[in-house]
Predict the structure.
Amino acid sequence: MKQLALGFVVVLALAGTGAHAATTGIAWDKAPPKTNDVGALQNGAKLFVNYCLNCHSAAFMRYNRLKDLSTEDAKLTDQMIKDSLMFTTEKVGDTMKASIDPKQAKDWFGANPPDLSVIARSRAGHGGTGADYLYTYMRTFYRDDTTATGWNNLAFPTVAMPHVMWELSGERKPLFDTKEEHGHKVPVFKGWQQVTPGTMTPLQYDQAVGDLVGYLQWMAEPAQNTRVRVGVWVLLFLLMLTFVAWRLNAAFWKDVK
């Protein structure tokens, strides 16, 4: 059953534990490289459709492009995409549009949820790649009764998006130490305390988020793996051509004093 994902991103005023988290300066974790793992990408596509697509569109991605995520042992067909990854009356050639009504979303939240087509590329920053940010973001939600949704996030303090995958991860509580900095005590994040268990273990949840982030990376540029493979062969060809040209040049000028 498709989960209702209230995935809107609207910055609220800093308050309570949100302000506390904002001073921790949490480092982004490195996202696992999964853009070449077709099985992980298929699982990431399923997670995206179930937990993200109700509110977030992917307007530059068509459902039938998911057939690129096929192997000889796990081939995706149009019918499989319809049966497993589509829950509305849309056609398999349509783009991935959110179920939420844009006018209602703006009335409810003040802004429409952002499109996720290239989110893995646009979120890069000084802390790492966009994939690193998303991998950290989806794993740092915690309960916060001072926010409108009841959730907060260490990577994006006071974010208005709730933890839509909380049933998988369970509830966790961030733990902090303090350190002296310019004469002031500053909170420093040191780890998590599991409050209630989820349907997945922490390791399984991290792997699931890695699959989801891998899919978001792939969706941002479905041809990236082909581009890299072709690029390697082009560079090898140019290297060989350079060697041949160098030897021809030497042979041409060998009798010229």
Q: What stands out?
A: The two ends are 81 Å apart (CA to CA). The first strand starts at residue 58 and ends at 62. DSSP finds nine helices and six strands in the chain.
